[in-house]
Structures are given as structure tokens and as C-alpha cells.
């Protein structure tokens, strides 16, 4: 039978849990992104089945995160999500919630490994990596996106230059490039499509290109945007500038490929030395054993 003290503790815990659940549920859900590039990314994530039944819980927790004074953190996360192509259509508050959940999962994993193995290295790694995993994934997504844009940009610029030389204006050339790109999900296509959308909404060419530079902070894109904006200010034909930029970007890719090949040769030296050492030990090991046994 339970004594009065155990019953009182159980009732107190039940009341605390009920109060916490009530406070969590008695708030309106945070609005999910439905418009713009973030809304489009959110719609794609829903269709891919990424959110599922957890979206409501995520929005509910994000509602409470909105009350926290994290303006600087939100601004930094908003910029990071933008550079990652509006990653999954998440808002900064939702990303904070996901990081907190990952940190809690890392805490549980650390406790499990600590109680089962008794070591400290694996639990410490779980504690450190748990809250960092969403950020690492976001950075990996941003890096892959920047690399994809740098690879596809020279061909897109070259085609736009040919279209403008044939008589099309800048929006028409970009529209033709977007219509003829093979991969619908290519980051280059998405960025060019966004430029067209901004131009159709009344933004100037300079503003649209500056938005591209803000979203893709790579050297190739920054150089391309700066050249086009400078040509527009000085009155230089943009078709000529686009052709020059396409050639320059291809040259940059060739230089980067040569540098990567040179680094690969240097990085392979250590594995090759280790492999040669293992082969020498494998061949000479039995001889050393026999010599030591004979000496004994």
C-alpha cells in the first residue's frame, strides 16, 4: 500500500505535468510559412513527408520560443536558413526548437551510454554533438548549395549572353535559361527563377542581383553580381559582360580543379606511407619473430 507521502508526491507531479501541458497547449500555433521562397520550401518538405504529424508540435513549441529575447540569434539563423535555400521552410524559432530537441536526445544518449558502458568519452561526445547536429546539417546543406551554384552558373551565364546577343532583354534571357535547364530542382534554376520573380514584382535589376549575392555568398557569385552591376552603371552592354564572366568562371573552375588535384596528391602521401609500413611489417614480421626465437 502507498503511504500518504507517496500519494502526495504523485499528486504533485501529476498536477505539475497537467499544468505544463495546459500552458503549452493554451496558445495559438505559430503561423507556418505559406508564401515566398520559404513557403515554397515548406510545401516541398510537406510533400516529401518530412514533417508529417510533428509539424503541429514543432509550431506549438516555436510559439513559446517566440517569447524568448533571442533577436540576435533569430537574425543570424534567418540569414543561415536563407543561404541554405530556405532549409525545409523552417523559421528561426522552429530551428531553435529542433536544436533543443536534438540536445535533449543527446542528453538521453549520454545517460544511456554512461550507465551501460561506464565510460566518459562517448557520453561527452553525445552531449556535445546532440545540439550541434542540426547546425552541422544546415552548414552542409549551404556548402553543397554554394558548390552546385558555382558549377551551374557558367553555363547559365553563357546561355543568357547568347540570348541577349540574339536580341532578348535581360529578363527574357533569364527566363529562356530557366525554361531550358534540365534539372527542376537545381539551385541555379531556383536562384534565377527567384530573380525573375523579384523583377516581376517591381524590384530593380540591381536589387534582384544584390539579393542573389546575399543568398549565395561565394566568390563566383559575388564577382558576377559586381561585374553586372558595374556594367549597368557605366552603360556597358550586359551581353558582353556576361560572356566575359562565363569565361572567367570557367577559368576559375579549372584552377580550383587543378588545386584540388594537387592537394589530393599531398593528402594521399600519409595513407600510402601507412600502407607501405603495414606491408613491411607483414613481410618482415615473421622473420623478426624467428630471429628472436632463435636468439632465445
Structure in words:
The protein is mainly alpha-helical and 296 residues long. The protein folds into two domains: 4-131, no CATH class; 151-265, Receptor-associated Protein, CATH 1.20.81. Helix content is 80%, strand content 0%. The chain contains 13 helices and no strands. α3 packs across α5 (92-117) and α8 runs antiparallel to α9. The longest helix has 33 residues, at 133-165. The protein is flat, with a radius of gyration of 28 Å. The model has no long low-confidence stretch (mean pLDDT 79).
The poorly predicted ranges are: none
Whole-angstrom Rg: 28 Å
Biggest sheet descriptor: none
DSSP E strands, number: 0
Structural class: mainly alpha
Which outline best applies?
flat
Percent in helix: over 70%
Continuous helix count: 13
The sequence of SSEs as H and E is HHHHHHHHHHHHH
- The tally of structural domains comes to 2
Tell me what portion of residues adopts beta-strand conformation: under 5%
Mean pLDDT: 79
Distance between the termini: 74 Å
